From TrEMBL:
<protein>
    <submittedName>
        <fullName>Type II restriction enzyme</fullName>
    </submittedName>
</protein>
<dbReference type="InterPro" id="IPR041962">
    <property type="entry name" value="BsuBI/PstI_N_sf"/>
</dbReference>
<dbReference type="Pfam" id="PF17728">
    <property type="entry name" value="BsuBI_PstI_RE_N"/>
</dbReference>
<dbReference type="InterPro" id="IPR009528">
    <property type="entry name" value="Restrct_endonuc_II_BsuBI_C"/>
</dbReference>
<feature type="domain" description="BsuBI/PstI restriction endonuclease">
    <location>
        <begin position="173"/>
        <end position="325"/>
    </location>
</feature>
<dbReference type="InterPro" id="IPR041454">
    <property type="entry name" value="BsuBI/PstI_N"/>
</dbReference>
<feature type="domain" description="BsuBI/PstI restriction endonuclease HTH">
    <location>
        <begin position="18"/>
        <end position="161"/>
    </location>
</feature>
<dbReference type="InterPro" id="IPR041963">
    <property type="entry name" value="BsuBI/PstI_C_sf"/>
</dbReference>
<dbReference type="Pfam" id="PF06616">
    <property type="entry name" value="BsuBI_PstI_RE"/>
</dbReference>
Amino acid sequence: MKNEKIYNKANPELAQLVSDALVILSSLGVPSVGLSARRKQKMAKAFLAVAGMRPGFSWSHVKSIEDGHRLISRQIIRYMNKYLDENISEGSYDDIRRADLILPVEAGVVLKSAKNPDADTNDGTRPYGLSMLVAEQLRRFGTPEWDTSIELFHGDHKTLTQQLKRERELARISVKIKGDIELHFSPGPHNVLQKRVIEEFLPLFGFGAELLYVGDTSSKYLHIDEAGLRALSFSEIARDKLPDVVAYSPSKNWLFLIEAVHSANPITELRLLTLRKMVAECAADTVFVTAFPDRATFRTHVKDIAWETEVWIADTPTHLIHFNGDKFLGPYPGTD
């Protein structure tokens, strides 16, 4: 027989705690735009587990790594199941890393591998925890000191600013291009997927492709090689027209136009028509790719995917889905 839940969904105290956690995360600069209500709820609950919080506790109870509170993914799931009205299989532990805590980690609010910074990236024993600095901010939530504390958190206090900057830099997503060039994406699931396209899809299927363009949710052009694009007679270099990632393989003379879909905008028939017009004078053959983070996201968009395009799913990076069956990866002839 299943263990009885300590807190059920009708528990207003738990609902308030989750709501407070989301307010705190937002105040600390954790982005949530584009997340579903369920994704926000799970992020908040995973954050509460890392903070050692549950219904019945005031925010003064928050624990940091200095208090010895560090949890690996499976321990976070157990905590959420026991105290926060979840029923998550421990086999879903990778969701903690890939989805529930990815934004708080990237924002530097939650520290990953708090005990062993040298642990392998995919090591399931890497624990999560709060720094003493963040824990101190949380303990002020709901007190008259909270607003002032947050202002200082984002203010120009030298020691505080340096420490926060260091934590954020440790959590940023870096991509190296052509040796010494390094890109820094702002936090967010869309940028995580773009990073995986550059670091996994292109090395696997790009035939030595060179990155010509990648955007960022917080800036117009994170990287753009205008000379390279113009050399290929690329007609549109406006950011609102370009796909998320553009790369070129000199050995194949293939131009890769890639849309990274976290929540919307795969390559539909209409988008394909727009992209074809954009490269109508292009000297290279074109490969159109829609990238998804996982199969669940792909399934929500599969009915809209255009024919004569490719699909890449980051969770199974060594495979492709070809929308037509007459050939494997490669460009299709344009149509008038």
